[in-house]
Amino acid sequence: MPDGTARESAADPASTAAGLASPASVVAARSGTCGADCIAGPCTLRDMRAAQRVLERHPGIALYAELAVLSHLTGWPMPIPQPPLLETLRALPMRLRDCALSHGVDAAVASRAPLICARVSPPALASHVVTALRARVSRGMWMCLPEEPRWLAPAYQWALLLDALTIGDHAPAGVGPDSRTGEWESVYGRPIGGPTRADQAATVHRWHDGGLRDDTRLRGLAFGLTAPSAVERAIGARAGDEDFGPRLADHLEEFEDCYWPHLYLKRAGTEPAAP
User: Can you give the residue ranges of every domain in the chain?
Assistant: First the structure.
């Protein structure tokens, strides 16, 4: 096919002069989770591959992204990296670090999207998580609220409410419903009936148990639907391997007091891989 640049330029010289036909005018950032540098000047394929290699060379960073997503889906605080992992992240050029976190979080959310999209917006979740990660790494800031029910996966959507009803003393167990009932009903969009707080807790417990009946779905939420999962690649063992638990424990030492992943990854690791 003959080169038609000259003909096209002659047809609309103003657009050509303004650079509207240049690649920069039509190439957008790869994702909504891209960092400021990537948005200002979209990454090349070489830039993207460099970011992916960061996740391959530093399994702790890949695991950080995975656990940050899983923590939001299950209602736990986001992991806090220990100094060695934090220093590794901070030593990376900002654009490369932002791109690596973007790739890690996007992959973690995408691998769970079919299991959460009925309740959680995958793009919004990814944007929130990557913003929180960058704030923690670059400025030592904690961006998340103490409770964020909007990010809970369908299977765990009652976890925070159940904790609130079974922990603390906002109202004695046998004296009327909890004082926060109206607030919760507004947040969750569902009546939380019961003459006493104990009765409310029993109702929510049934709802919560109902979400935990599908082990294959729970495994998919824990690991994602790719095989092998990013968690397994980061740890260096498949979920069914005998040394998976000890390897997981070793890798969790890269984070401060981070024990909750055992509740999801070790339990789900006993189940067959999701299709």
Answer: 36-151+215-268, 158-211
Question: Exposed, middle or buried by CB within 10 Å (0-12, 13-18, 19+), for 113?
Answer: middle
Over residues 110-127, the pLDDT tens digits come to: 999 999 999 999 999 999
Residue 177, number of CB atoms within 10 A of its CB: 18
Q: Extract the tokens encoding 37.
A: 């540098």
Give dist(CA 165, CA 155) in Å, integer: 18
CA 132 vs. chain centroid, Å, equals: 10
- Spell 62-84 as b/e; 16+ CB within 10 A means b: bbbbbbbbbbbbbbbebbebeee
Q: Name, in order, each residue with C-beta under 8 angstroms of 138's C-beta and a sequence gap of 6 or more.
A: 90, 94
Q: What is the pTM of this model?
A: 0.84
Residue 81 φ/ψ, nearest 5 degrees: -70, 140
Q: Which residue has the tokens 């424990």?
A: 249
Query: 85 and 61 in contact (C-beta within 8 Å)?
Result: yes
Task: Round the CA-based radius of gyration of the chain to a whole number and report it.
Answer: 23
Structure tokens, 118: 């009925």
Contacts of 66 by beta carbon, 8 Å cutoff, 6+ apart: 104, 108, 224, 230, 231, 234
Tokens encoding 30: 């790869």
- Give the span between the Cα atoms of 39 and 246, in whole angstroms: 40
Within a 13 Å sphere around the CA of 45, how many CA atoms are in the beta-carbon half?
0
CA dist 179 and 56 (Å) reads 49
Q: Write out pLDDT tens, residues 6-54.
A: 665 555 555 445 545 444 555 556 666 775 656 566 767 887 888 899 9
Tokens 């339990």 sit on residue: 267
Measuring CA to CA, which residue among 187, 213, 190, 217 is closest to residue 203? 190
Our measurement of the distance from residue 241's CA atom to the centroid of its chain's CA atoms, rounded to an integer in Å, reads 25
